[in-house]
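HUMAN: Now follow C-alpha cell order:
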Amino acid sequence: MQINLKVFRYQPQSGHKPHFDTYVMEVDPNDRVLDVLEQVRADSDPNLAYRRSCAHGVCGSDAMRINGRNALACKILVKDLNSSDITVEPILGLPVLADLIVDMEPFFAHFRSVMPYFVNDDPIPADGKERLQSPQQRERFDDTTKCILCAACTTSCPSFWSNGSYVGPAAIVNAHRFIYDSRDNAASPRLEVLNDQMGVWRCRTAFNCTEACPRDIEITKAIAEVKQAIQTGKLE
C-alpha cells in the first residue's frame, strides 16, 4: 500500500527550524511504524534520528507520537492506523535533541526521586535464604512491575505538559511497585516525596496515562491507591 509519512525533523547543528518532511512510500500493511522509519533511513535519509533497541516492545526506547497518540513504534502496525496518512513526532513535554529523540534526563530525574529500588536493612534471614512473600503479597503490586520506562504515560499527561516539575505517572507507578512490596521498608519516605505539591496531587485523573501505556498497566488506579495511602496512612 502507498502511504504519506510525515516526520518531524529538527537537527540543531543544521541551523534549520523544526519542520516536517513528507515521504511517499510503498509499504506492507503488516509493517510496523519502526520498519517504515528504518526504510526511510535506509532509502531516503540516513540522517533521520530516532531511538530503538530491542524492537519487540520490551526496552521502551522508541516511544513517539504516532497520529497524535503516544505509542511504541515497534508495536504499531501500519494497517492498525486505518489511514494512509501517518504523522510521527517526538513525545511531548521533554526537550527535543534531534528529530524524534528527546532528552530523557528530566524524566529519569523524577524516576530517581521516588527511590525506585528495594530498601531493607533488616538482618538477613537466619537460614540464609531470600526474603519470602506469599503469592497474594506479590500479586498486590504485580501490575506496576510491568513498567518499561518508555515515558509514554508521563508525556501524555496534561499536568506534566503544563508543569515539568510534576513527578509524573511513571515515577508514581514505580514508587507504587515498592510501596506495596511486603519485603520493602521505605514506604513512608516514598509517600512523603509523593505528598509534595508536585507529587500525586498534580494528577487530574485524565486517564491519558493509562490509555498510552503499551504494557496495559492500570496507571490511574495505582495513582489513586497511592493517594489513598497518603490520606489514610494505611497500605491496603
